[in-house]
Amino acid sequence: MDKSRIKILVVDDERGLCAGVQEALRREGYVVDAADGAHAALKLVEERLYNLVISDMKMPDLSGLELLKRVKMRSRDTFFIMMTAYGTVDNAVEAMKQGAYDYLSKPLDMQRLRATVQRALEFQSVVTENNELRLRLQKRSEPSPLVGQSEGIRAISRLVEEIAHSDVTVLIEGESGTGKEIVARSIHFKSPRHDHPFISVNCAALPDQLLEAELFGHVKGAFTGAIASKPGRFQLADGGTLFLDEIGDLSPKGQGDLLRVLEDGSFRMVGGTELVRVDVRVVAATNKKLSDSVAAGKFREDLFYRLQILPITIPPLRDRVEDIPFLIETFLEHFCAKHKRRRKTLSAEAMQLCQRFPWPGNVRQLRNVMERLVLTQRVATLNVPDLPDFLREYDERSTTFTVRAGMSLSEVEKLLIRQTLTHVTDNREEAARVLGLSRRALQYKLKQYGLLKGSE
Question: Which of 160, 316, 352, 396 has the most beta carbons within 10 angstroms of its beta carbon?
Fold first, then answer.
């Protein structure tokens, strides 16, 4: 651990104590700032990121616990050590509940302070390494659908960052294959609940007779075959996130059961008498427009408004064409690494075709195509003939192509010549006339761009 890179903030309204702690830790090699109150500390926190805050519990302007809460909202990875002259067990317990690493009584034992600081920073290092490892594994296991530069995707990415730290219910709407569950997982892993379970439930697959038991669990003997008590999905997700997929297909009874638990966070297991309370964040998703289902009387209006506190709508891939190159690059890189294949890219024509295709299966369909190409094609650069039949058949019917920012003039010219020969006329003399070229110039460009028969 390089102590010169560790930033510590000491906060205490007793300036003498504050200066003493600051000097003691500076001698250890740490970078240490001092603030004579919570409000001064908050100004410093706005300006720089601290590994550790050592704060008095009781200060005139703002309590140490309130300071902890505010700093944690801005930087959840900052550790806290609390100091107090009121060394009661209650204060210690409350500080730990709010997320403090440890608790020291005044007058301070400087040797114990130094040892506590070192333990806190060592533990923080382990937590950081584990978080980075988890994020790497998450990226390796499933590329995010939120890749790209379109305004819609950037807005969703910003929204995910903003809402992850709250506990309110989220409703994600979008066509099948747009990546609703991955967005839900992203919200979970960016939230303070990331160390607790993420439990997924497909509501469309739960018949009425099993729905209540699956969601809320059952006690032994509750029904025929209940030979032992079994927790439900809400209990399994306690402390974490419950993802309710295809919420629009939930039966009327299921909608009523869900509304009750969302309102007060409690329920009874099937066959049970005791009230069970859980701390669960609910993220729901649907490929339907729930407002239409409400208007048609197929979905409860009160449940709809309870779910739609924070709505997210993921656009279909055909409405974010500019993101396709970024997604393709991400998928190819991911699957080449996963399957230990050589790096692959798409030619300009193949990329253009992928951008023109409407992708009814959205990001999931694009992802599957890229994995198939990695597994079946050995060439480094994938051209139109290497693409699946349904894409090439679409290409034969298509009469347009897309010019995107950043393309060179030669790339645009190559695409224009190819599209003219494919969809306007295959007669080179006529094609040259349409393009405003001499036949000899067209022949030269066909050779230059590799468009002569047999060259692709």
Answer: 352
